[in-house]
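Q: Given only this backbone (230 positions), what sequence would you predict?
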């Protein structure tokens, strides 16, 4: 049987970098790792609860697109300082009310910091090409599945967005679970272009997430062979 490995961890040090940058003593490592996860969960929940829609008339390739998609959250820690950089695609909510909203988000995140005397800063960075990012493409696909779009049509539209708007060299989309309420769980996938997973120097971006539909939870995996850095 094939041995599967995460494409991001496989390429650390070549085309991928760590999303958490800090050093910790062995006895405090688990606590600091859990703190990172809590910070990311707080930020994602805050943005999901305040997400603003583009509007019913704004569509891209016949797909209704929302705003404020999170690409990744980078956390840097030193002894008394924590810096959080949120890389986003199509930011609107946090940009329009930036001083007030960032302050509100900062106060929410500070509740999960273990040492309250550390200084926390949060900044927003907009990525250049959001439609080539697998996390954003997964969110677009999940939004279509929640709206009860046919899974195969949703997968094709997601690939079309990455190809025409993101100019990706290759993309693979995979769904797993009780797709459209089938009795037995299965796996469906589509691929367009070249996705060379065995070449380490190839810039492959990867995302694995889940979406809740009326038929149950589906797993989403997306591999993107980017044309360049986003």
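A: Predicted residues:
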């Amino acid at each position: 049987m094939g041995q599967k490995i995460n494409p991001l961890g496989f390429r650390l040090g070549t085309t991928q970098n760590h999303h958490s940058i800090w050093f910790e003593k062995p006895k405090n490592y688990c606590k600091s790792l859990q703190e990172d996860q809590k910070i990311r969960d707080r930020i994602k929940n805050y943005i999901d609860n305040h997400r603003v829609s583009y509007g019913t008339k704004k569509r891209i390739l016949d797909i209704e697109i929302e705003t404020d998609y999170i690409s990744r959250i980078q956390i840097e820690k030193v002894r008394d300082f924590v810096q959080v950089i949120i890389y986003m695609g199509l930011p609107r909510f946090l940009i329009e009310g930036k001083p007030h909203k960032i302050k509100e988000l900062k106060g929410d995140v500070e509740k999960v910091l273990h040492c309250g005397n550390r200084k926390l800063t949060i900044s927003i960075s907009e990525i250049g090409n959001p439609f080539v990012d697998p996390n954003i493409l997964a969110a677009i696909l999940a939004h279509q599945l929640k709206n009860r779009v046919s899974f195969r049509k949703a997968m094709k539209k997601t690939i079309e967005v990455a190809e025409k708007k993101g100019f990706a060299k290759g993309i693979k989309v995979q769904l797993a679970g009780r797709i459209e309420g089938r009795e037995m769980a299965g796996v469906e996938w589509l691929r367009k272009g070249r996705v060379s997973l065995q070449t380490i120097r190839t810039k492959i971006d990867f995302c694995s997430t889940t979406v809740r539909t009326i038929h149950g939870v589906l797993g989403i995996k997306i591999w993107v062979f980017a044309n360049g850095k986003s």
